[in-house]
Here is the input.
Amino acid sequence: MRALLIAALLAVTACGAPAAAPAGAPPVTLSATDLAFADLLIPQNESALAALALTASRPDSALRPLAGKVEALYRNELTQVRAVLAEAGKPESDQHDGHDMPGMITAAELAAAAHADPAAFDGQLAALLRGQFEEARTVARAEREAGTSAALLELSSRIDRTRAEFLAELG
Here is the structure.
């Protein structure tokens, strides 16, 4: 049921016809689901990167090794999704900027984790990451069910797999 709701959200939030491809390039089209997936992936990854950055000031954090892996992967995914948007002639949307949505770590949550005492920090960060990983899998599955872009379908499959691996590492 939740996956259907996410698929509906993905379809509804990304309206509009595809932009024309650059002259001489084959047309790249993205469905409403593809666009919504990109519009959610970007702020989800960016908010998670902000949370992961907190481990830099916590040399005793047990999450530092995981943070390093996740950070590199998320930056790569952001590059990929932005390239797909550019190829399709679609601007990056900020329609979810600052929203308190599943999978997005809020400024208040970041502040709470940043000010957590050392004993509580890893627990707070792990909870934030767990929620982000779980929601990323939900959104990725919705893209796989209704998306049309080969590049985004491949990315969504990889996201589902890697987030499952990250959840297993969190325990």
